[in-house]
Design goal:
Layout: H1 6-16, H2 23-35, H3 38-54, E1 56-57, E2 64-65, E3 79-86, H4 89-96, E4 103-107, H5 125-132, E5 140-143, H6 149-162, E6 168-171, H7 187-195, E7 198-199
Length: about 200
Amino acid sequence: MPDFAEPLARLINEFKHLPGIGQKSAQRIAFHVLRAGREHAERLSQAILDVKDKLALCRLCNNISESELCLFCRDPNRDQTVVCVVEEPQGILGIETTRQFPGLYHVLHGAIAPLDGIGPDDLKLKELLMRLGGEVAVREVIIATNATVEGEATALYLARLLKPLGVKTTRLARGLPAGGDLEYSDAATLSSALNNRRDF
């Protein structure tokens, strides 16, 4: 005999699939949805559908966007000669909190992880190389992959890939916690890492 009515049990189960959500949190969220008005549930479900239906990848940097170019790539005030490479779109949010990076981004959508079957060809590396050979001369690539084994492997691979191109390649300075993700770093730590980046 199930603990909850089937629709509620199904909703709890769906919430449990979200990252960082365990059984107790899933139950709390499900009961919140149950208690809230129908309008709230409709807004929530529509927001989820809109994320799936209305968002795509920016054709230049692979960030999430609702138009052909993301808001950073369309901004004429951004420095197009500096590109910061991050693993996932969430990394951009972390760097933007510092309000100190005026350049553009490139999202790899992952990191090299041989144990998970993810190699260089599974990342958006070709797109980055095409950007560097484009009409705008990029003078610096900042590698801002996470301070994890996979992030470090990706950074080293990228540095070796970029070296023959003669583009200045830097890495965020230490100060970011080893094993940590950019999205969870505070603005002061990220600001310091950005300002004290080093040559690769």
